[in-house]
Specification:
Helices cover 29% and strands 16% of the residues. The longest helix has 27 residues. The chain folds into 2 domains: 286 residues, TIM Barrel, CATH 3.20.20; 138 residues, no CATH class. It contains 12 helices and 18 strands. The chain has 468 residues and is an alpha/beta fold. An 8-stranded parallel beta sheet has the order 3-11-10-8-7-6-5-4. It has a 3-stranded antiparallel beta sheet with strand order 9-13-12, with no helix packed on it. Helix 1 packs parallel to helix 2 and helix 5 packs parallel to helix 6.
Amino acid sequence: MFKGIQPILYGGREVWPLVEGGKGVSATNHASSGAWAAAGGVGTVSAVNADSYDPEGRIIPQVYHGMTRRERHEELIQYGIDGAVAQVERAYEIADGKGAININVLWEMGGAQRILHGVLERTRGKVAGVTCGAGMPYKLSEIAASYGVYYLPIISSGRAFRALWKRAYSKAAEWLGAVVYEDPWLAGGHNGLSNAEDPRKPQDPYPRVKELRETMREGGIPDTLPIVMAGGVWRLDEWENWIDNPELGQIVFQFGTRPLLTQESPIPPGWKARLMTLEEGDILLHRFSPTGFYSSAVRTPFLRNLEARSERQIAFTKEPLGDHAFELDVGIGTKKGYWVTKGDLQHAREWHAAGLTEALKTPDETLVFVTPEEKKTIRRDQAECMGCLSQCAFSSWADNEKNSTGRLADPRSFCIQKTLQDIAHGGPVDKNLMFAGHSAFRFKSDPFYSNGFVPTVKQLVDRILTGA
């Protein structure tokens, strides 16, 4: 046992201070989270578009039949509730009374509050807590408290927690189970970088977590209430000075990337194999997500194509103005009145000659050039939107009266629901978004995984508890 690692009390029982990260659409399910809890830790079922099953135990494909986005949105919510309930029930059975089971939701996912109510209502006594990030989930405490479960907000700064605490959480302080600090430069998936922070200049998490603890103390929160360190956590001996540190109080560690490569992990074999080959720098912190948040993912050809698409971008005016004195004559069919600079006109003609013959307008008065096939895919994906986010830059969907963000749909982004569902269920890794934390390159050099070894969750937890 690594020095200083002791069980903590959570959900009415002793558990190891090791949390499995939630990991979005089907990258964490009942098998992985139930096994993590059975090993004595806190398993986390992803309640984001989770899989449900037919009576024979086969995954039910999430097919949408509604003619309108609002109708498809209602189907999405029902899929979400049914799937998360099925995952919790199976995880609870696997855990067999050991550890604890949390669920993870994204506050900015479509129908988040309705799904949370629906899942907690049908899983009473089986869920210990709800982790929630991607936005400012002010109502999280109220919802969790109404079902007698803990809430664990995911934040990236003391300032964000202070706002949540003052406005809402102080009214349900007894149900605050922990505060998850997710490092915005190191964690996989969506990250909480603010406009004041530079994505190219990572900050040391220690002073940021120290500041978070001081903010919690201001609110009268005891040092025994854990801060969960998430993002960049690989082995405990690298965090030795965080354990039993009076400046930080109780620290718990969340592992998001390492549990991807286990026997119980539900991600397909191709995804697991790719993780074994990554080099440092293969994870890109980018802003192509339709959520508007930064996110971190493997730089697959899918992601490289999004990078290239944004680089094939020119600004325009609707009348001659300054340097925009040249009328665009490619990519726009018979339309007129797009005025660009001389240099951008040359770029556009080069792209057109290379087969990128379609110019798509963005909300920022720019045009991006794509192939006819890409345009067809973009338009189809936008048309088939089912409102998987509370607001989506790619389709312009919003969960409001008009079901619109009021902005033009952005062709520089993509349908995140489509690609995450596809890769999680066996789709090609090179043609989809593959989330991973920035430490994923360590699979290749860590001796624990030598000769292609893929551990069980129990073997991984036991290894982590040694410090390695």
